[in-house]
Design goal:
It is built from 16 helices and twelve strands. The chain is of the alpha/beta class. The mean pLDDT is 87.
Length: 468
């Protein structure tokens, strides 16, 4: 079974990591005293003292790697997260080493430079090794080796999505043996994965076959079987996963609470509901909007003149949109259409070759320059630099009935740019896909993510091929 191979691999990884850690420390000593200097010199501790320190460093680092989950299976984890784990663990390790060495045992004669060089070398070599190992294992798994055999208990939307992800990612090295379900006829298949029979056959299959994992993918209507299935799986000793059939209701990273031993899952966790996060984002919005107004003022002045000369009517177009907590506000844009009645303006989105758009307006819309007045919306607090794009009230009323979780987007301020926009979902594109990206942003917000989106907005440019 694959779990036996995993034990051998983990033991081998510990040995290799120990060798990398020891080699990095010895190399750090050599770099410090023989490359950056002409030798240890007078008053420097001999090499033997440094190498004796490895008797403490190596086992301590291996224990830290284990505690921080470096040896946990990472078939489905992205490469950058594994590297991040190594960086995080080594950072904890070097800080602990410095505290113990210089503050507790007061061995102040060990070179600080050696410790710093050791940190960077160990992170580099450990990361390179993990990346090469991962690439090698993924190549082997694509060829059908080192596979984990999985049995699904229950046919549901969750089961189909689980199968989709496994079949679409052969580098993970999973093979779906089949599905058990009481309500679906035997030999029914989904993407060539067959229903083998009822849930009562689980114990027989576990006895006769060497399954590496059981994924419980029951539909909501079959959750009465859950406790029996878990008991059967635990009795067999096979690793068991639970894939809930209500993933459309909860976020991918649910926020849980411990209520005196009772786990409580919050349906929606919004980081921007935190007062500290709200304050940081608002400060960024004020500084960013003021900077943007100052820098783009010549462009806005020129745009205003061109709009005024292009057709009769006001320079600034005010349109009602729905923002934070479902409250309406007026969003500012440079007018890009001929003047029309409010009823005509509200009828639909602008379409390709829309006769209402002026020549100057078409240029402003395609370059997103018509959006610049929204910097004043941001300064007022109606909008943010980054967030879901706001929509008109009548479209909000329409979409909230048609698209699940649509109204969640109004738990944060709407933005001038957003995660959906930098991924290509602007203008006349799929509303459902836009909402998926908006929800991901709302549930995974960080200040770093905002900065990334702003940089992507500049790097990808402001040209919008879907703006008519």
């Amino acid at each position: 079974m694959i779990k036996d191979n995993q034990k051998v691999l983990n033991r081998l990884l510990v040995v290799i990591d120990a060798l990398i850690t020891a080699s990095s420390f010895m190399l750090a000593y050599y770099v410090k005293f023989y490359i950056l200097n002409d030798g240890p010199g007078v008053g420097v501790l001999p090499a033997r003292d440094y190498f004796e320190l490895l008797g403490f460093i190596v086992p301590a680092y291996m224990l830290l790697y284990y505690i921080c989950g470096v040896y946990a299976p990472k078939r489905t984890v992205r490469k950058r997260f594994e590297v991040y784990g190594i960086i995080r663990t080594n950072t904890i390790g070097i800080v602990a080493l410095i505290i113990v060495l210089y503050m507790i045992v007061r061995e102040i004669h060990f070179s600080r430079s050696v410790m710093v060089i050791f940190y960077f070398l160990n992170v580099f070599f450990a990361s390179v090794f993990r990346v090469l190992l991962r690439d090698g294992l993924q190549s082997i798994r694509k060829k059908g080796y080192n596979l984990k055999h999985v049995l699904l208990a229950g046919y549901s939307r969750a089961a189909e999505e689980y199968v989709d992800r496994i079949l679409d990612n052969p580098q993970w090295g999973y093979s779906v043996y089949g599905i058990l379900d009481n309500n679906i006829p035997e030999d029914t298949d989904y993407r060539k994965v067959k229903v083998l029979g009822g849930l009562d056959q689980l114990e027989t299959i576990l006895t006769e076959n060497k399954m590496d994992e059981i994924a419980i993918t029951l539909s909501l209507n079959d959750y009465d079987y859950l406790s029996t299935i878990v008991a059967t799986c635990e009795k067999s000793g096979v690793h068991t996963k639970f894939v809930p059939d209500y993933n459309s209701l909860i976020p991918s990273k649910p926020y849980t609470e411990d209520m005196l031993g009772l786990p409580v899952i919050n349906i929606r966790y919004v980081p921007l509901n935190n007062m500290g996060n709200m304050f940081v984002k608002r400060v960024m919005d004020i500084i960013g909007s003021l900077f943007g107004i100052i820098v783009t003022s010549p462009i806005m002045l020129l745009s205003a003149i061109l709009v005024k000369c292009s057709s009769p009517g006001p320079v600034i177009f005010r349109q009602e949109r729905v923002g934070l907590h479902n409250k309406s506000f007026y969003m500012y844009k440079f007018r890009s259409m001929e003047m029309q009645s409010e009823k005509s303006e509200r009828k639909a989105w602008t379409t390709k070759n829309d006769p209402r758009v002026t020549k100057i307006g078409r240029i402003l819309r395609s370059t997103s320059l018509d959006e610049l007045p929204q910097l004043f919306n941001i300064l007022k607090g109606d909008m943010s630099l980054v967030g879901p794009r706001p929509e008109r009230p009548h479209f909000v009323d329409k979409f909230k009935e048609e698209i699940p979780r649509y109204m969640v987007k109004h738990q944060v301020r709407p933005g001038l740019t957003g995660w959906a926009q930098v991924n290509g979902y602007r203008g006349d594109t799929s509303i459902r896909k836009r909402i998926e990206y908006d929800l991901y942003y709302i549930e995974n917000w960080t200040l770093g993510m905002d900065i990334k989106i702003i940089l992507m907005t500049f790097l990808k440019g402001f040209i919008n091929k879907n703006a008519y």
